[in-house]
Every structure is written in structure tokens, then in C-alpha cells.
Amino acid sequence: MKRPFYISLLFICLSCFHPAFSQPSTLIQNDTFWFTTNNQPIYSQGGGIFRFKDPASGVEKYYWYGVRYREAETYRLNPAVTLPTSTFETVTCYSSTDLVNWSFEHNVLTMAELEKNGGYKRWLGRLGVAYLAELKKYVMVVQHGNQVLFITSDTPAGNFNWHNQISMKEMIGTPNTGDQTVFTDDDGKSYLIYSYGSGRNKIYVSEIGVKDGKANLLDCKEIFRGESREGNCMFKYNGKYYMAASNIYGWDASLAYYLVADDIRGPYTPAKSMAVMKGCEDDFAHITQTGFFVSVKGTKQETILYCGDRWADFAGNGLGYNQWFPMSFEGSTPVFNSLHRWNLNAQTGSWSVAPGNNYVRNASLKPTVAMYPPM
């Protein structure tokens, strides 16, 4: 029986607006502020995305951890104002099954937890999470003041509690790391990727494990010594390890540099100077600083996502805090695709340029060097 026209029209309208008929978005839109699926602002900077099983459903999900700074909301509400400070409020956790549509889970580390254990130490950021089977705990490794803090939780999105804090002085000569992220290899082992705490002219890899019953760093391998770099982060593709980093421009945008090796502990090449990532030169990696990478292993292909931090409220670099881009490869050479709008299918791993993408690159937003005080 042929459906009357007005009923067909009603069906189309319901398909557009009713949740039962709507399809999740595949669009990643850069150069704007991001929101959760229930239209709440996403506040997540200086963190990382890790894949764990949801304890309730057993389904693997992406968990995105990062810091909410007080100034982030102020800047989002009035982007005409550039603010000079970064005041920690909480570590947030969001989850997703497709890396595009995100739901808020929990504020997993609060000021109250820090106050119970000696208080907030001037700075908290640059964090990542690893699962340690020996402890049966999820361990967050984070810069806190002038040291490295380990906090743990029984679940990926639960309350993270104070566990251990260490000085890096015996390992590298400074109590702090310069910048740091967490990388998890295919075998489940996780590593801290970090730079020297004073001058940032050396880069290290340390395995995260258990020492004397507590989460700690098991070793320390220097993998680079040369130009000063920060925003240190790592990904693995086709069996090779890529260590990426930025210039030491503070909150400002930067070129993206990289090293490559067949083993996570090296040797890495180029040995004396890092190579500039192809495609990032014209617009300083789409006006970002290297943040972290996500490996999307789909049914059709593997795609590496470059997840850049845009510290807009501190450097006035444009709208949005999070700018994500698909990587492509020419042999073993990584290529940065500076896109304004693009689509990601996390199930297949495929991506495509979205309609309305702005191909104009603005190379006029040149960063200014920020000098660090001696440590």
C-alpha cells in the first residue's frame, strides 16, 4: 500500500529529530569549541586518550583525560580576552566509542584529593593513564608541582586517589620532567615519554611499572639529545615508533618535529636533529602544540590521529582548545593533514575531507619564543 505524502513527510521529520532515528556524527570540526553529546562544553587539555573496557558493559571505549583550567571557561565565553594564568580546577574524563561523540564521565581528580595529601603545588598537567595488571589499578601519571605524581583508581572513570610521588633527580638530574605523556604499546606495556626538566634538550623513555609495591618508573633511557623540545608524545605505526615534539614556545603554536626508531628505546633517527613533520610547516601544525596521538585500528585501515593542544586562553591562538587531524604516510614518513573539517569512521579506520573544509592556511600567526626561568 502506498504511504500518503503527509505521512512520508512526517516520517522524514521524525528521522531527523528523534533519537531513535538519528545517526551519530562522524564530523570532526576544528577551529571551534567542542561539546559533549548533551551539549556541555568539553574542557580537556594536556592529557591523552586510552582504550579500556567499560566495567559495566565490558565494551571497549575510548577514555579521554585532561585538565580543566579555570581560565578555559572564561576564554570560551569571551575569546576577545587573553589570560596570563592557568589555574587547575579538576581532571576530567570523557568517553566515546567512535572518537567523535563524547559523553562526560566524571571529574576523576579534584582539588579536595590534592588537599588531603599536602595540597596543590602550583601546577598540575601533562598526564596519561596506564592499566597495571600487577596492581589491578588504573594509574594516572601527572606533573604535579616540581615532581611526578602517580594516582590510582579501580575503574577507568572512577575517583583517582593519591598513590605515589617521585622526584626525577636521581634519574635525569632535575626533580621534574619538562613535558610528558603516556604511551601504551601493543603488548600492553606503558611508558612515560618526557623531556629534561631544565632546558628540555634531552628526551627520555621510561617503562611504567611496580616498584616496592607502588606504581613507579622502572628504568630511564635517553633517546635524544640536541635542540630543546617540549610537548613530547609518541605513536606506533607499521612497527615503527615515532617520537614527536614541539618547539619550546610555551603556550604558543609550533612546528611538529619527530624521530623514528624500530625499538622504543632506540636508536632514533635523525640522531642529532629532529625532522619537521611534512604538512605542518605553513600554519604551525594548524596553530597547535603537539599534545598526543591516538591509533585507530579499523577493519579497513589504521589511522593515526594527531591531537594538538591549542592553548588559546594563554596565547590567543584562535578558537577551540582541541584540534585533531588525520595522519597519512609516504613510506615511513609521516604527513600532517591540516584540515578544518573532516570525517572519521572509527570502526573502519577510514577518514575523508568533509564538505565545507577551509583549505586556507594562515601562516601569519607566528609564535614568539617564551623563555623559561632556570630550574
Give the topology, please:
Layout: H1 5-17, E1 27-29, E2 45-53, E3 60-69, H2 70-77, E4 88-96, E5 103-110, H3 111-115, E6 124-132, E7 137-144, E8 147-153, E9 161-166, H4 169-172, E10 177-184, E11 190-196, E12 202-211, E13 214-217, E14 221-225, E15 230-237, E16 240-246, E17 256-261, E18 275-276, H5 284-287, E19 289-297, E20 302-309, H6 312-315, E21 322-330, E22 333-336, E23 341-345, E24 350-353
Antiparallel strand pairs: 1-23, 2-3, 3-4, 4-5, 6-7, 7-8, 8-9, 10-11, 11-12, 12-13, 12-14, 15-16, 16-17, 17-18, 19-20, 20-21, 21-22, 23-24
Q: Measured on Cα atoms, how large is the radius of gyration?
A: 21 Å
- The first-level CATH class name: Mainly Beta
Structural class: mainly beta
* Spatial shape: globular
Describe the biggest sheet? Answer: 5 strands, antiparallel
What labels would you give this structure?
Tachylectin-2, Chain A; 10% helix; disordered N terminus; mainly beta; 375 residues
